[in-house]
């Protein structure tokens, strides 16, 4: 089983991916983790990294995702673009309001991201990053990550608990595996 989770920051991608990996005994991959690691090594935050990411690093990450999609089975990817590079995956998009996402991550901000002083500042930063990254993906790959037609399922996690999201995804996986 190949699953790709795309979604906005704070939507629960990583948390949900780790839970599903454990429950279904799947390998878990995260392009975000890889990109944050590279950004920190180069002295950037993830926000300013997306404006200066060298093409060879984009290509390296893209090839890594494609190779896993072509050579492995039984994994889950939390990634904004894995759905594009692994077309035979179960593709799920997790949405969330920028305000709720900021509330979720404000008290536990990552080292790879510039610290926000308020939830509102973090929400605005997330809104700008999503727009900027979306424009970049459209320019580089010709895809619109906001287009719901790219995904087998679209889940708004704004008012859902982790368990509710997991239940919904397991139902979706069961339905798609039967068809």
Model description:
The chain is of the alpha/beta class. It has a single domain (2-178), classed as Rossmann fold (3-Layer(aba) Sandwich). It contains 8 helices and 5 strands. It has helices at residues 13-24, 31-41, 46-52, 55-71, 82-85, 98-106, 119-141, 162-178, and strands spanning 2-7, 27-30, 75-78, 90-95, 153-156. It is globular.
- Oligomeric state of this protein: single chain
Low-confidence stretches: none
- The computed structural class is alpha/beta
CATH superfamily (homologous) name: P-loop containing nucleotide triphosphate hydrolases
Summarize the structure.
This protein has 179 residues and is of the alpha/beta class. It contains eight helices and five strands. It is globular, with a radius of gyration of 16 Å.
Helices and strands, with pairings:
Blueprint: E1 2-7, H1 13-24, E2 27-30, H2 31-41, H3 46-52, H4 55-71, E3 75-78, H5 82-85, E4 90-95, H6 98-106, H7 119-141, E5 153-156, H8 162-178
Parallel strand pairs: 1-3, 1-4, 2-3, 4-5
Helix pairs in contact: 6-7
